[in-house]
Structure formats: C-alpha cells, structure tokens
Amino acid sequence: MLSKHLIHQYEFETEAEIIPKRDGILIRPSANFPRAGWEEQFEEAIKKGQQPEKEILEGFSNEFDNKEWTW
C-alpha cells in the first residue's frame, strides 16, 4: 500500500505496478486498463460482419434471484 502523499506526488490514478529489480523495486502507474480498446475492437468486428452475441447470461438464474431479489 502506498501513502496518500506518494499517490498524489507521482499521480497514480487507481493502480500501480510494482516490479522487482536486482537493485530495488520499481513502482510506476499501471498502463494496464481493464477492457482498454474493447469498444474499438467491437466496432471493427461489426464492420467485418460479425454480430454481437445476445446477453451471455440471458436465461440463467439462481435461487437468490428467484426468491429474494426485488426490483
């Protein structure tokens, strides 16, 4: 865990990479953003004629959803 001071000083957003090195540890902002580029990949696939699948979990339910969940 990094201190709040270091997070602000080095402009870490939400995640940091910690990389062990021979002579110490390198801490840097994470360049890995979950789902980065997905929108562009979907658009490209659609242009090539692929159609998005329906909701993957459509039709699946569980006991909690059926008995306890309310909208």
Question: Any overview of this molecule?
Answer:
This protein has helices at 4-9, 38-47, 63-67, and strands at residues 16-21, 24-29. It is an alpha+beta fold and 71 residues long. A hairpin with a 2-residue loop joins strand 1 (16-21) and strand 2. The mean pLDDT is 80.
Brief rundown of the structure:
By secondary structure, this protein is of the alpha+beta class. The protein is built from 3 helices and 2 strands; from the N terminus they run αββαα. It has a domain at 1-31.
- Based on secondary structure, the structural category is alpha+beta
The largest sheet is:
2 strands, antiparallel
Low-confidence stretches: none
Mean pLDDT: 80
Q: Strand arrangement, largest sheet?
A: 1-2
Alpha-carbon distance between the two ends: 38 Å
Principal-axis shape equals flat
SSE run: HEEHH
Q: How large is the share of residues in beta strands?
A: 15-25%
Name the helicity range: 25-40%
Brief descriptors of the model:
single chain, 71 residues, alpha+beta, two-stranded antiparallel ribbon, flat
Question: How is the topology of this model organized?
Answer:
Blueprint: H1 4-9, E1 16-21, E2 24-29, H2 38-47, H3 63-67
Antiparallel strand pairs: 1-2
